[in-house]
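Troubleshooting log. The previous run stalled partway through. Resubmitting the same two chains, unchanged.
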Amino acid sequence: MKALEEKIQKEGQVYPGNVLKVGSFVNHQIDVPFMCECGKEFYNEFKDAGVNKVLTIEASGIAIAALTAQYFNCPMVFAKKSKTSNIADNVLFATVKSYTHNCVNQIMVEKQFVNPGDKVLIVDDFLAMGEALNGLIKIVEDAGAEVVGAGIIIEKAFQEGGAALREKGYKIHSLARVQSMDAETGKIEFVD
Amino acid sequence: MKALEEKIQKEGQVYPGNVLKVGSFVNHQIDVPFMCECGKEFYNEFKDAGVNKVLTIEASGIAIAALTAQYFNCPMVFAKKSKTSNIADNVLFATVKSYTHNCVNQIMVEKQFVNPGDKVLIVDDFLAMGEALNGLIKIVEDAGAEVVGAGIIIEKAFQEGGAALREKGYKIHSLARVQSMDAETGKIEFVD
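Second attempt completed without errors. Output:
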């Protein structure tokens, strides 16, 4: 998505440790009209897949997931993070490592909100090592539901998450795929 | 909003300690088409107020705030929670007590995202004691911006937050105002 690449070039900030900050339009301030366009892109890509639920993870996936779900006219569910492993009977859970925050979270979804037969589109802001996405996939499949694919705003294509998931057969649609970025020069290059 | 009151009656669950669970459509699973209708209600109420920014607080305010902001064709900003009081120069912050979770959070917004002259509509899922709303108002006013009002999905009108804020002159538009609720019988009554 050309407009997204331009926006990342203009507003994104690269920090050491492969950190790309897009707080001005993706995950602190949200450029809602622009994110609606991203949601429409996801809809165009997955509109024939029978999606009846959109799933994301708190907090920064929620806005884009909600805006996307409206085009599918379906509910959105977000997995909640918890530092505790205090797991109840009525929840689906997964363990997710955050490389950005250097911690491990349990993520959980109440069982009643993902059901066998559901066709779930996972939406998230970033894909890098694939930790969050793998956790969300586990939750959907543990519920006996189907992952129809994932819509990602920004994929760090130089990290292995996306490749590994495509290898397994998941359809991953990333609107911008960063090939490389340099904290010293601020230069960001995209996959062609 | 009659449809919201009916939905709360049907899907809401009352627990001891004045807890009203609406996880099936407001804050775990989000009924996105329905929340779009709520967003339109906020738009109708505040469309002549010059709103150029919607502000909320993570995590459960984000979906409704994003869906609302699209009708104003403006960005949305969400305040982040932090247990630490490690406050940097470039952030606006407030201290917010959570009665539900029995803890105190610092909430913060980067200064660059709320500016003097901004006309800010605050959107949140619940209003009870008014702690979160007061914190968000402090952030807006510390930035030299203006609070044009607040759009709330569910107000617990038997708690004092809404009354105190209206007393101070803030325009609070709550789509459902709970008069009373009973954990034993499950009965929920609304303000006429």
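Takeaways: Chain B touches chain A through 33 residues (CB under 8 Å). The mean pLDDT of chain B is 95.
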